[in-house]
TrEMBL record:
TM spans (from-to): 20-38, 147-164, 184-203, 215-237, 243-266, 456-476, 496-529
Homology family: Belongs to the alanine or glycine:cation symporter (AGCS) (TC 2.A.25) family.
Keyword Nucleotide-binding: no
Pfam families: Na_Ala_symp
GO cellular component, one term: plasma membrane
Protein name: Alanine glycine permease
Predominant subcellular localization, coarse grouping: membrane
Species, as recorded: Roseivirga ehrenbergii (strain DSM 102268 / JCM 13514 / KCTC 12282 / NCIMB 14502 / KMM 6017)
Organism placement in taxonomy: Bacteria, Pseudomonadati, Bacteroidota, Cytophagia, Cytophagales
Domain of life: Bacteria
Keyword Membrane applies: yes
Amino acid sequence: MQQLNNFLSTIDSYIGSAGWFPFALLGVGLFFTIYLKFPQIRYFRFAFKVVRGKFDRAGDQGDTSHFQALTTALSGTVGTGNIAGVALAVHLGGPAALFWMVVTAAIGMCTKFVEVTLSHKYREVAEDGTMAGGPMYYMKNKLNMKWLAVVFAIATVLSSFGTGNMPQINSISSALKSTFSIEPWMTGAVLSVILAFVIIGGIKRIASVTEKLVPAMAIVYFLGCFSVIFANLGNLIPSITSIFSSLFTTTAATGGFLGATIMYAFNVGVGRGLFSNEAGQGSAPIAHASAKGHEPVSEGMVAILEPFIDTIVICSITGLTLLSSGVWQEKHLNDFAVTDMSILAGHDYTDDNKAGRVALKEHLSGENPLPVFDGMLQVENGKITSNVTVIHARSLAEDIVVNESFGGAPLTGEVEISNGKPVDGSISFYGKSLIHSVPLTAIAFTKGWFGEYGQYIVSIGILLFAFSTAISWSYYGDRAMTFLWGSGSVKYYRIVYVAGFFIAAIADTTIIWTVAAIAIAVMTLPNLLGIFLLRKDMKNTIADYWKGMKEEFPDEKTPE
């Protein structure tokens, strides 16, 4: 399993985690922001009028309303990225990562406006009578680059598993296991059945579910967040200050957090921001292409609201919850994930002085790697007797107990270690270290007015958020399958999608995040290229829209 993760991480290092990727993503968004004169600001208020249906016409072609398209797209983005993803970003990059998530969203509002407008403009009616749209259709119908459309569609199918399927159910099963002690396979089995029932009904059933689910789950989650923020109100201003104070300096080491470089915080923040709101990835345009409407620009305006709601609002509130609670820099008892663990040779490393923190941070960043342990690790009654140091979740681990298995008896004997990691994955390491993802957010929620009951809000929130994401992404995948092999292929895709959903409930979390990172990058790059090539088409489409608005609604004040 570790070898597979290393191989996937190597692939990801050349694309999604490469230094050039965030600049490509933000660069295209920034170009359109300037080229189209900041539409995410100028059209923001007007977008609410469109969502309410003020400019709709009777008989507009489509399967869903503007609001249903918005909630379907939001349900695809509001998921683990808002709960687990923000916690992972803060864990890796510190407070500065939250700033870059918000910046990514602000620029992404324009990117999403462009990609949704073009996808809606060049959509088609599928064989079964439903609307079929997305970046693959403007690539084929306008750019005459069917090869690029095929690449994007294949990447969409893969990304439906790597983004909308596997990380979502894995986070749900982890949360329900830690909170309610429900076995992951049970969670996977029950939710797989429900998922199958919903997605068989197609976009109309999906839209009817998401338009009710998205507002309800947001209210529940906000109650939990604000209970923590107000309970720790004295930490709110210092938390906000830390976001900006660490922007242009190395994020300071504090508590168990060993610090992060400027570029690392930037890369993590942009990467997690994209995973959260998917601006530029080309996923949301598939949902918006189903919306009833005669003007593609109007649907593009609706999409402007997505990154704002998803990242600027929800992710920011999650981030302030984590920072104000202080749990992001505290070590907590947890079962160690082998993929997050490294065993160093020697026991001279410490995090209670500056020199030790610097040495450990440089090891984690790869600047100055420390020697890892190879050989047989000696363990007596669960305690390590060999001269080693254990690193877990980017922190120095403490109070370590080695068990024969997860939840098993303390081990006495030898454990084979290769390149700093245990060879036998069944052996359990337990102790205190930093934590991330859903478990970190769950602990943060216990620091509010609800006390220990706060963790249940996270579990319920992740269940609703992540499950709704899985529902929406099944639709993105089936539209890609429709493009590639016709409507008849969708039923086979849905079977595999539900099966993958169940399997991912019991799979390794770290590997799932790595798969998701690769899938996002492979899907994003063709879309960014496509919308850039259609920049003049986009500008002309906007001009035609405002011209038509003046003729149809002469008394309407427009922000053209």
